[in-house]
Amino acid sequence: MSYTDILFGTAGGVATITINRPEALNALRLETIDELTSAVLAAGADPEIGVVVLRGAGGRAFCVGGDQKVMVSTLNRAGWYVLAGKLRDLFAAVRRCGKPVIAAVEGWCIGGGHELHCFCDLTIATESSRFGQVGARVGGAPVFATRLLPRLIGEKRAREVLFLCEQYTAAEALQFGLVNRVVPDGELDAAVARMCADLLAKSPSVLRALKLGVNVDDVLSDAFLPLLVESLADFFGSAEQREATGAYAAKRAPDFSPFRRSPS
């Protein structure tokens, strides 16, 4: 398959998938999500591949989430259903891939990009990398993180990350349990290569079973996610959501005061 938004290469048992939109800090549009899903599925089905690496091009960002200009700011109810379905397919492909998936993070890892790294099995980050969710501030909706983050870092910390929309250093992310390794800037490639070699030296059948065991509580289950997606359907395209995306574009603080109504 030919790709426009990603790079996909294999060598020595490792498949490397690179989000290749550096001019947009590797922000996701629908085409990007589709291509990432396709590449992860292809890597998972390839018997010559033992490890999958996800990364971002350009050195400034792993991924800053949904592209505000071409996707988030124009979302409506119908578009939200499409986006949520595609994101779910991507995260499911990563989580259900029979090979370990490593997120190699350099720079910004924000919003949907932060969700993506969380769904990977392991994360290596450079010291200057920054992590965080921003949905409640910019008109996005990290509903998938609501199911996964509490398992990764505990419920109280997950609420902090999701509600407050703060940014965290790589050292803080390591302390929280969001990442596995932090390496000096400029040493990411070597650290990823070492981890890949380590994983390739392990039994692929055992690794597959261990991943299945860790994932046995399905955070992408249909028992919960359709309710979460539906709960936000009327938000997208609303005045409240447009206030968030408009404020982001204008680089001002959003005014949500008109939308704080008492529950009926």
Short summary of the structure?
With 264 residues, this protein is of the alpha/beta class. It has helices spanning 30-45, 77-96, 112-119, 135-138, 143-153, 155-164, 170-176, 188-200, 204-214, 225-231, 239-250; strands spanning 6-11, 14-19, 51-56, 61-63, 101-105, 108-110, 122-126, 130-132, 168-169, 181-183.
Average pLDDT figure: 95
Q: Enumerate the spans where pLDDT stays under 50 for 5 or more consecutive residues.
A: none
Number of strands: 10
Silhouette = globular
Q: What is the name of the CATH topology?
A: 2-enoyl-CoA Hydratase, Chain A, domain 1
Strand order of the largest sheet: 1-2-3-5-7-10
Largest sheet: 6 strands, mixed
Number of helices: 11
Cα radius of gyration in angstroms = 18 Å
Share in helix: 40-55%
CATH hierarchy class name: Alpha Beta
Structural class: alpha/beta
The CATH architecture category equals Alpha-Beta Complex
The domain tally reads 1
Straight-line distance between termini: 51 Å
Strand fraction: 15-25%
Kindly report the name of the CATH homologous superfamily: 2-enoyl-CoA Hydratase, Chain A, domain 1
Give the SSE order as H and E letters.
EEHEEHEEHEEHHHEHEHHHH
What does this structure look like?
This protein has 264 residues and is an alpha/beta fold. The protein has a single domain, classed as 2-enoyl-CoA Hydratase, Chain A, domain 1. It has 11 helices and 10 strands. The strands form 2 sheets. A 6-stranded mixed sheet has the order 1-2-3-5-7-10, with helices on both faces. A hairpin with a 2-residue loop joins strand 1 and strand 2. The longest helix is centred in the N-terminal third of the chain and has 20 residues. The model has no long low-confidence stretch (mean pLDDT 95).
